[in-house]
Amino acid sequence: YSLEGSLRDALRNEDLDIHLQPQVELSRNRMTGAEALVRWPDGEGGFVSNAKFIPIAEDGGLIVQLDHYVLRTLCAHAVSWGADLPPGFRLSFNMSAIGFQDPYCAEKIMEIIGDSGLAPHRFELEVTEQAVMTDFSASIEKLIRLRDYGIAVSLDDFGTGYSSLAYLQQMPLDRLKVDRTFIREVETNAKSASIARAIIKLARTLGLDCLMEGVETQGQLEFCRLNGCQHVQGYHLYRPVAPDELIKVVHNHA
Ligand code: G
Ligand code: G
Ligand code: MN
Ligand code: NA
Predict the structure, then answer these.
(1) Which of 14, 18, 206, 246 is 20 to 30 A from residue 53's alpha carbon, by CA?
(2) 49 Cα to the center of ligand 1, angstroms
(3) Which residues line ligand 2 (CB under 6 A)?
(4) For 236, what's the count of Cα atoms within 13 Å in the CB-facing half-sphere?
């Protein structure tokens, strides 16, 4: 039986779940949000690697269904967290490039969030440069609709895609999520540090919030703080946690 077949079954049987990785605002040391990341239990206490099944979902035409499933799952958990989520706490979800190109992508996202009864401003869509660049004007239209509805938009894995700065200026965004490759060597490589500083400055210049992904050391965290990057996400702060742990983690954060 193929992995694709198993994934199809898992989606139909709702066997997939999410974990949530907290995001922290440096200036106030506050947890301001969390990113939903899909998890597929392997039946032996672990999970099937995302690196293994996400590409299969993309090739097999299942990724759109998967992304919608993840958003519905996130909404269901958020409803159960209710008022335990601090005011302003934002829940982000990923949309694959293929899913984002669907002409009804924005409507589908609004429908799922609308059905949950939750406020749209609780949510943040993460799209990659690739997703936005494929049909730029259609993408802009979708992003404008989603933002008008109240959903925040971040550009994920920033710096690894192929959008030019001229295009970046035209994108209706709230946040740049800087790809984790840019923080990796800032403590040991002067050129790396210069590039990371330039990217943070670029975000600030464009009036966008800047979040550094993949922060794994205290030194990297201090680098972000020192250079005006407002938010961080990474193993040094928190690994992704199961949904029933999120509220505990939020309330223990200090
Ligand atoms: O959490 P983890 O390191 O296992 O995620 C690996 C990859 O899977 C990352 O590139 C991440 O963007 C991707 N991913 C995680 N959750 C989702 C999701 O809900 N939808 C899509 N399209 N990709 C996801
Ligand atoms: O592509 P995207 O940025 O959505 O993927 C997020 C992925 O990064 C998830 O798979 C998550 O588990 C992983 N991740 C989160 N924090 C860290 C980190 O500090 N280091 C590394 N190597 N991966 C991380
Ligand atoms: Mn992401
Ligand atoms: Na990312």
Answers:
(1) 246
(2) 10
(3) 21, 37, 50, 94, 156-157, 180, 213-216, 234-235, 240
(4) 18
